[in-house]
Amino acid sequence: MKTDCAPQEIEKLIIEWTEDKDDPSYGQFATASKGGHPHVRTVHFRYSEFFNTLVIACHTESSKWKDLLNNPQMSGCLFSHKRLVQIRWESDVRLISGDTTNIQEKKLLTILWQQIRPDVRQAYWNDMIVSKKSHKHTSTKRCPSFGAVIMYPYLWDIYKLGKESYLDGIRFIYTLHKNEWKKKKASIVSSKFF
Fold first, then answer.
1. Structural domains in the chain plus CATH codes
2. C-beta of residue 173 within 8 angstroms of C-beta of residue 193
3. Which residue from 98, 101, 120, 150 puts its CA 20 to 30 A from 172's CA?
4. Beta carbons of 148 and 96 less than 8 angstroms apart
């Protein structure tokens, strides 16, 4: 496992962004199916201090979970109009299901369960009751089909938009090489490096 989820300047931005109540960190989470078909959906990204990386809540019977079981990689994109920044990344992932015996993983699931909205918790239980018909509903108890995805990025693509003009934007790509982040300035419209 990688220990630094991002270079310091990006990590600082991620922590600030995921804790911002006025500009929540909703973004796109992309996976590929077993057959190679792309899937993208909007999720709420959160920062886990213990795991020092981005995490999301995930239903263990969702297409997202199934995709990640077959191919444990994803790419993500966050955009903040408030900050005029777009962050894209590619990442290896680790799936944490409700039957984990790891204490820290159990804590992560508990924290994520408490952080999601009550109506989302209700939706997890409603789905469980309809499909299994064996569990009694309670939104305070964590649903057995509730899981987490821990991300271990190996590439970050940061684009800071220009305030006055698109041409004033600046873009950097960071790649993880032998546990060190390498930074390169990149074109704002192509994959060329400067």
1. 8-186 (2.30.110.10)
2. yes
3. 150
4. yes
Mean pLDDT computed over every residue of the chain: 91
SS3 content of the chain, % helix, strand, coil (to 5): 25, 40, 35
Question: 156, 6 in Cβ contact below 8 A?
Answer: yes
* β strands within 45-145, DSSP E: 46-48, 53-59, 73-80, 85-96
C-alpha 132/C-alpha 25 separation (Å) is 32
pLDDT digits (tens, 9 = 90+) for 61-117: 999 999 999 999 999 999 998 899 999 999 999 999 999 999 999 999 999 999 999
Mean pLDDT by 10 residues, the chain (194 residues): 76 90 89 94 94 95 96 96 93 96 95 92 85 58 94 97 94 95 95 87
Closest CA to 28 of 93, 97, 74: 74
In this structure, the number of other CB atoms found within 10 A of the CB of residue 39 comes to 15
